[in-house]
């Protein structure tokens, strides 16, 4: 039986740091409001000459070195993002080009903040089926390019960055113990970038109405996020045939500290076993989980044999949960 294991991780955060006080100079907000309502203190923003694939490439180089493999051992690239370089080609294609990797399949998936876990679940399927042995899965965003810089309801919540993981095949280690995912397109309008696709192509009107940026009904999204994050975490634990006591570290999607607090309370996971970095990097949508995973590993919070739980919720709506034995 072939199982999927983590061979290496990497992450990249652009140099520029934007604090809550910086936002307070641009919109009617305050450090007090942002940190109390969301847990966010600061976020990184990409430089003008950086595109999403540039962030992926930086994270991927670190992950490939960490995995101790040659880049040409990678036989599939999956990038999860809602802020791709272009409508097409995919950011996965650009990543392949910029890394100088031979002509292997590469593509993007769009599953909002669940994109990385969706990619991980797909990598697991490809590896288990024998279609691939080394899969590079990245989650990356330049949210600063798709927020409405005048809308205080949304602009203060997001950040830029990338995380990448090299998944490999093992015949001896258990690796991924469970995967759980779902989506409900009926609620798509609650968190949406309305224009730029075939439904509302770019026009003077679409630009004037700021339809090319994130539109979110925060309160509504919040309610679903709490329920689905809990569901994804608890289902992943159940499907792994373990209990919440067996979880050594939980990496939740970092959209709001209050969503995380409600999730761990319900799922029975103590705060000290929960990885939090929302204060430093805000919500990086698809990039959040792989960045946190890399940071957790490099901070020594994960050791061999640990049970790692991850769960996410995002636009779509989409949600996903996994347990992996490190
Ligand atoms: O990434 C996955 C998907 N995303 C999420 O899961 C995010 C889910 N939603 C949330 O995290 C929260 O709903 C927010 C952090 C977005 C907002 O927190 P909230 O407690 O739900 O606030 P609210 O939207 O109910 O707004 C409360 C008040 C409003 O004023 P009035 O109408 O009560 O006078 C807003 O206009 O806060 C106001 N407000 C702000 N005030 C200062 C909204 N944004 C700001 C701001 N600064 N940046």
Written overview of the protein:
This protein has 326 residues and is of the alpha/beta class. It has helices at residues 20-24, 31-38, 52-67, 91-99, 115-129, 152-155, 204-208, 218-239, 257-267, 278-281, 288-298, and strands at residues 3-12, 16-19, 42-45, 76-80, 106-109, 134-142, 160-170, 176-183, 191-192, 215-216, 249-252, 307-314, 318-325. The protein has a 5-stranded mixed sheet, with helices on both faces. It has a 4-stranded mixed sheet with strand order 8-13-12-11, sandwiched between helices. Strands 2-3 form a two-stranded antiparallel sheet. Helix 4 links the parallel strand 4 (76-80) and strand 5 (106-109). Helix 3 crosses helix 4 and helix 8 (218-239) packs parallel to helix 9 (257-267). Bound molecules: oxa(dethia)-CoA. Oxa(dethia)-CoA binds next to helix 2, helix 6, helix 8 and strand 12.
Features:
binds oxa(dethia)-CoA, Peroxisomal Thiolase, Chain A, domain 1, 4-stranded mixed β-sheet, 5-stranded mixed β-sheet, 326 residues, 11 helices, alpha/beta, globular
Shape: globular
Helix content: 25-40%
Q: Helical segment tally?
A: 11
Characterize the main sheet.
5 strands, mixed
Q: What is the gyration radius calculated from CA atoms?
A: 19 Å
Strand content of the residues, in percent? Answer: 15-25%
Which fold name corresponds to the CATH topology of the largest domain?
Peroxisomal Thiolase, Chain A, domain 1
Total separate domains: 2
Which regions have little confidence, pLDDT < 50, spanning 5+ residues? none
Number of strands: 13
The CATH class label of the largest domain is Alpha Beta
**Backbone structural class:** alpha/beta
| Overall average residue pLDDT | 97
Query: First CA to last CA: what distance?
Result: 18 Å
Bound molecules: oxa(dethia)-CoA
Largest sheet strand order: 1-7-6-4-5
**Assembly state of the chains shown:** single chain
Q: CATH superfamily membership of the largest domain, which one?
A: Thiolase/Chalcone synthase
Series of secondary-structure elements, N-terminal to C-terminal: EEHHEHEHEHEHEEEHEHEHHHEE
CATH architecture of the largest domain: 3-Layer(aba) Sandwich
């Amino acid at each position: 039986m072939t199982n999927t294991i983590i061979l290496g991780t990497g992450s990249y955060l652009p140099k520029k740091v934007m604090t809550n006080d910086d936002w307070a100079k641009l919109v009617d907000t305050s450090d007090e409001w942002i940190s109390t309502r969301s847990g966010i203190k600061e976020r990184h923003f990409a430089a003008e000459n950086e595109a999403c694939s540039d962030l992926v490439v930086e994270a991927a180089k670190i992950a490939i070195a960490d995995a101790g493999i040659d880049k040409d051992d990678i036989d599939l690239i999956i990038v999860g993002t809602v802020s791709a370089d272009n409508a097409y080609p995919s950011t996965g294609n650009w990543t392949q080009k910029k890394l100088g990797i031979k002509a292997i399949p590469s593509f993007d998936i769009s599953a909002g903040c669940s994109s990385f876990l969706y990619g991980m679940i797909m990598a697991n399927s490809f590896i288990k089926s024998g279609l691939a042995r080394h899969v590079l899965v990245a989650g990356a965003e330049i949210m600063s390019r798709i927020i409405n810089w005048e809308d205080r309801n949304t602009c203060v919540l997001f950040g830029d960055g990338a995380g990448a993981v090299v998944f490999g095949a093992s015949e001896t280690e258990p690796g991924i113990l469970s995967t759980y995912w779902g989506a409900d397109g009926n609620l798509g309008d609650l968190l949406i970038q309305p224009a730029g696709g075939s439904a509302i192509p770019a026009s003077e009107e679409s630009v004037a109405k700021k339809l090319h940026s994130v539109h979110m009904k925060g309160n509504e999204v919040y309610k679903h996020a709490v329920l689905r994050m809990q569901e994804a975490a608890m289902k992943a634990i159940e499907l792994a045939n373990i209990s919440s006591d067996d979880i050594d570290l939980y990496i939740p999607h970092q959209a709001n500290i209050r969503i995380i607090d409600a999730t761990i309370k319900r799922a029975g996971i103590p705060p000290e076993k929960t990885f939090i970095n929302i204060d430093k990097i805000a919500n990086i949508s698809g990039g959040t989980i792989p960045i946190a995973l890399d940071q957790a590993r490099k901070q020594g919070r994960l050791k061999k044999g640990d049970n790692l739980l991850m769960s996410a919720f995002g636009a779509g709506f989409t949600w996903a949960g996994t347990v992996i034995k490190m």
